[in-house]
Amino acid sequence: MEEEQMISMPRIGDPAPAFKAVTTQGDINFPADYKGEWVILFSHPADFTPVCTSEFMTFAHMEEQFAKVNCKLVGLSVDGLYSHIAWLRTIKEKIEYRGMKNVEVKFPLIEDITMEVARKYGMIQPSESSTKAVRAVFYVDPKGIIRTIIYYPLSLGRNFDELYRVLIALQTADKFSIATPADWRPGDEVIVPTAGSCGTAKERMEGGGDMKCYDWFFCTRKMDEQTVLDALIKK
What we know:
The chain is α+β, with helices and mostly antiparallel strands and 235 residues long. The protein has 2 domains: 3-162, Glutaredoxin; 177-232, no CATH class. It has helices at residues 50-67, 81-94, 116-120, 160-176, 198-204, 225-232; strands spanning 19-23, 26-30, 38-43, 71-77, 109-111, 135-140, 146-152, 190-191, 211-215, 218-221. It has a 5-stranded mixed sheet with strand order 5-4-3-6-7, with helices on one face. The chain starts with 18 loop residues before the first strand and ends with a helix. The mean pLDDT is 90.
């Protein structure tokens, strides 16, 4: 493989690579500035493009929803700061999409014309584009550790219900020491951590709980939506 095709990227469980950058909201020192908070760091291919515009409007529309569960948003593309500013102004003043209008993007958008940050996070995928970042999403926890990585190609807009669901699932797993099954959403049953038997699993859960075991390795318990939200949403 030729050297320029080599892609370096952090892995799940690694500390988020540190960097300092200029953004539309001033300078940032990542991830140090976000200690104690969850962060979604995401890249987009280019300013003034339609898929990216739909995504930024959606992220901005949901920013308060993310903030309620202690999560900040940080965007990035390899465009310059003035391009970012002009694009975000255009979104606010001219674009109405799916009932969203006058949308003001308040979270920082990183200038990365040198591609330094994009390369550090493996956002440049040469087989897709050597001049644009793919749609990467990194979830960084309050300790600065990467917990989830999701990649999309240039042509595919992200599913924002899923981006939020992933965040809630990660936080729920941390808070209650459980795992979440396929398609889990708050209010669904959760998976009791693997144990030698369902009896042992019950002993590990506070008060035993309502357990359902399909076999010794697969046990679930009820966890209502309000319990999850009360534990996660900032008062």
